[in-house]
Amino acid sequence: MPEAFLSLPPLNALRAFEASARHLNFRIAAEELNVTQGAVAQHIRGLEADLGTKLFERLPRGLALTDEGRAYVPNIRRAFDLISEATLLLRPEPARLTISVTPTFATKWLIPRLQDFVTYNPLVDLRVLASESLSSFQVDGVDIAVRQGRPPFGAGLMVDLLFPQQIIAVCSSALLPHGTAEIAATEIQHHVLLHDAHNLWPEFMEKAVGLKMTTELKRMRFNQTGLAIDAAIAGQGIALASRFLVAADLAAGRLVQPVSGEMRGTQDFYVVMPRKQRHPEPTQAVRQWLLDAGERPPV
């Protein structure tokens, strides 16, 4: 180690000096450094003793730099700037990516798994763009999307199946007749049916339950599937949803399946991204995480 390094003051003392010189107040400097005011004052006393000179004048209301302190602080700040610059060169900045999803997919599937995402992708700064309208990869700066529909989505896009559309009916267990695990198929239409924008109840009743719908006595309409699911959890009626969106609620007992039938829909869920990506490596990492997470149990 060079001899000059051996005579350097402690780094914490220099940090306390730089912060105190900026604020001219030990208390505010202590709050910035997340230490006590006494610790800052002790660092400064030790630094002054080490340098053999006084750096601050202690005034009734704050501090003032001495001539020696004013001469010392610019070089200390420059030294900290150099340390920061050198560290940034070694530490890669997170890649900023935007994922486009529907609000229901975001709240019911993606958000509960974000901690897992951060664990697997610590160098990806993910922006979640949740909208019912179709976002543009170019105009909206979207890097990757989860879209519901039927391929093909476009020649310039890569597409992976994430979830099939398996439609089931769900409700709160409070709606089940006492001592039973299901609601009789003929009784379904006598409950409040919670509709979303997909309006799948007539098709579901015919294909999954085997009955044609007559005029509904009670209904509620929502513009998002997630709202219909939340209403079902609250005991307001029976909703239809893709199985993967309610898997966690079923596992936790917040929802039950009042009829065993299900319907295979035609609007599956896909991971979609441009073939030419702005950030290929992190975008591929997000794609792989989505596909892997889709195969893991609900959280």
UniProtKB/TrEMBL annotation:
UniProt keywords (A-Z) are:
DNA-binding, Transcription, Transcription regulation
Every HTH lysR-type domain range: 9-66
| BP GO terms, sorted | DNA-templated transcription
> What GO molecular function annotations does the UniProt record carry, in alphabetical order?
DNA-binding transcription factor activity; sequence-specific DNA binding
What the entry lists under SUPFAM superfamilies is as follows: Periplasmic binding protein-like II, Winged helix' DNA-binding domain
Q: Which domain of life is it from?
A: Bacteria
Q: Which family does it belong to?
A: Belongs to the LysR transcriptional regulatory family.
Q: Output this protein's name.
A: LysR family transcriptional regulator
Organism whose genome encodes this protein: Rhizobium loti
